[in-house]
Design brief:
By secondary structure, this protein is mainly α. It is built from six helices and no strands. It has helices at residues 2-25, 30-42, 50-55, 63-67, 71-80, 97-108. Helix 2 packs across helix 6 and helix 5 (71-80) packs across helix 6. The structure holds heme C.
Length: 112
């Protein structure tokens, strides 16, 4: 009787862990994406690294510049890059649509 209770306990623990890990898997870690894929050009502080600035990256902390760009502009540029600037690589193949959308508030946060 006791061992049945233990098996039952372990089983519900397993189910709990499985559902928890699938919940966590859906979470998007924008800080990690930024550090891994964006900071190289845009810098940890959003102002742009020397390489990024050389490529034509703007200062993300510049609120006046941010105001000239809509969220859709950002999603579009992150997804497709800039056809007029071959230094700006498209991320559409590297990040999912949800991840790209999640990066917009992350970029906006630098000017707040
Ligand atoms: C290889 C360097 C490089 C990397 C890596 C990079 N960017 Fe950029 N980014 C640029 C350059 C250069 C521009 C300016 C493009 C232009 O307007 O000509 C830019 C522009 C932008 C803009 C402004 C777009 C607009 O519509 O004005 C956003 C937002 C942006 N990047 C976000 C990101 C995010 C998010 C990542 C990481 C997923 C990233 N960038 C990674 C170089 C880079």
């Amino acid at each position: 009787m006791r061992s049945k209770a233990i098996v039952c306990f372990l089983f519900s623990g397993l189910i709990f862990c499985l559902s928890l890990s699938s919940l966590l898997a859906d979470e998007i870690y924008t800080d990690e994406i930024y550090a891994e894929k964006c900071a190289l050009c845009h810098g940890e502080d959003g102002k742009g690294t020397p390489t990024g600035i050389d490529f034509g990256a703007k200062d993300f902390t510049d609120a006046a510049w941010q105001a000239t760009r809509t969220d859709d502009d950002f999603v579009n540029s992150i997804t497709n890059g800039n056809p007029d600037n071959s230094n700006y690589l498209p991320f559409g193949d590297m990040l999912s649509e949800e991840e790209i959308k999640a990066m917009v508030p992350c970029v906006r946060a630098f000017a707040q």
